[in-house]
Fold this sequence. Notes:
The protein is of the alpha/beta class. The chain is built from 6 helices and 9 strands; from the N terminus they run H-H-E-E-H-E-H-E-H-E-E-H-E-E-E.
Amino acid sequence: xxxxxxxxxxxxxxxxxxxxxxxxxxxxxxxxxxxxxxxxxxxxxxxxxxxxxxxxxxxxxxxxxxxxxxxxxxxxxxxxxxxxxxxxxxxxxxxxxxxxxxxxxxxxxxxxxxxxxxxxxxxxxxxxxxxxxxxxxxxxxxxxxxxxxxxxxxxxxxxxxxxxxxxxxxxxxxxxxxxxxxxxxxxxxxxxxxxxxxxxxxxx
Length: 204
Ligand code: SAH
């Protein structure tokens, strides 16, 4: 109800949020806050997004149910699990291996068979699986990585936070042929999208 009042009006998205148990994606010290409408810390210094933001970003992606979706930034796996209820298949990538294995165990425990994972630098997308009808990035970059828009199918939609530590906006890019329409939708705060794998340092 709170999320609906705050703008999540798509009934499929509301249903997906209802059916994915967020407590499965939150670890011990924060379990009692699993159903609070706030972001929470997860391992490797990252965060599981606020349910409202997960709902709005899922809604911005305009999913009908048959799409092939790329998510960059698996984190806890919560957003990927929500997307798995809204699309045909979700390809989710994460640069922190420990986060990815925890997320994989959660997908298996929930019987989510349409989520596939990869340990990689998601700035480069998943070239072997491209093009994607939808792309969602859940970490913020100063600019939209060209490597990702290149993997967006004709008519495809990509949603991601763009900006620096001071100010970030959820942007939606819609591809028509070689044209990309850009919309600025919502002010947000996300962890940074970092290039490379953790061992290489990582640059914003
Ligand atoms: N969607 C997640 C949100 C996690 S926070 C959830 O629902 O819990 C964003 C995640 O993006 C972090 O786990 C971070 O490690 C990851 N990330 C940042 N830069 C990345 C990159 N270049 N490639 C893949 N993952 C990245």
